[in-house]
């Protein structure tokens, strides 16, 4: 068998060398961008061109922008002039606290009796549950106000006015002493 020399070609499956014309066809075109403006020429501020307009005829001596203000400055210390203080402006509307609507005792009593939160706390107390914190304060305040309203309206039964059970009075009294006259 004869010896074969190695070549640098990529073989039949390698990349093909394109001609310049074919390469130009396959190449993507560059994105066209707006060219930058050339801007003002250097030294333009020194070349003041006379402008022929109506304003130019009125003010023939155009001031140079580079020259500063010509207002006079006093070289002596300036005495302070009294400062005029503007009086404080008072608002047209005045703020006032909202007055609570005064309820009658009957209306307040109805509100307390219909208070659902108080009813829930009352159920908890009846179940021998101990109230703490805000619940206890709320419960105590409302029940105290309820008692005041009931006394004010005369709906409570005082101990003096209460109907006494006759059997209870009979049992509490020692009737033996009255009947038998025993003094032991």
Brief overview, please?
With 184 residues, this protein is an all-alpha fold.
Could you walk me through the main structural features you see in this protein, from its secondary elements to its overall organization?
- The mean pLDDT is 78.
- This protein is an all-alpha fold.
- It contains 7 helices and no strands.
Blueprint of the fold:
Layout: H1 20-26, H2 54-58, H3 105-113, H4 116-126, H5 133-153, H6 166-172, H7 175-180
Helix pairs in contact: 3-5
Protein name: Der GTPase-activating protein YihI
InterPro entries: YihI
Biased composition (Basic and acidic residues): 18-35
Radius of gyration: 55 Å
Count the helices. How many?
A: 7
Order of helices and strands: HHHHHHH
Q: What share of residues are in beta strands?
A: under 5%
Low-confidence stretches: none
Keywords:
184 residues; mainly alpha; 7 helices
């Amino acid at each position: 068998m004869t010896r074969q020399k190695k070549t640098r070609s990529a073989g039949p499956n390698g990349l093909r060398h394109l001609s310049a014309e074919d390469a130009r066809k396959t190449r993507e075109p560059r994105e066209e961008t707006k060219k930058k403006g050339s801007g003002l020429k250097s030294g333009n501020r020194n070349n003041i061109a006379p402008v022929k307009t109506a304003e130019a005829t009125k003010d023939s001596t155009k001031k140079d922008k580079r020259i500063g203000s010509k207002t006079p400055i006093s070289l002596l210390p300036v005495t302070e002039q009294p400062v005029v203080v503007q009086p404080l402006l008072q608002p047209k509307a005045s703020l006032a606290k909202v007055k609570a609507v005064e309820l009658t005792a009957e209306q307040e009593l109805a509100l307390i009796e219909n208070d659902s939160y108080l009813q829930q706390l009352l159920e908890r107390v009846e179940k021998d549950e101990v109230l703490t914190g805000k619940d206890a304060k709320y419960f105590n305040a409302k029940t105290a106000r309820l008692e005041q309203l009931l006394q004010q309206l005369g709906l409570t039964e005082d101990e003096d006015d209460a109907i006494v059970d006759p059997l209870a009075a009979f049992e509490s009294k020692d009737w033996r002493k009255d009947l038998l006259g025993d003094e032991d």
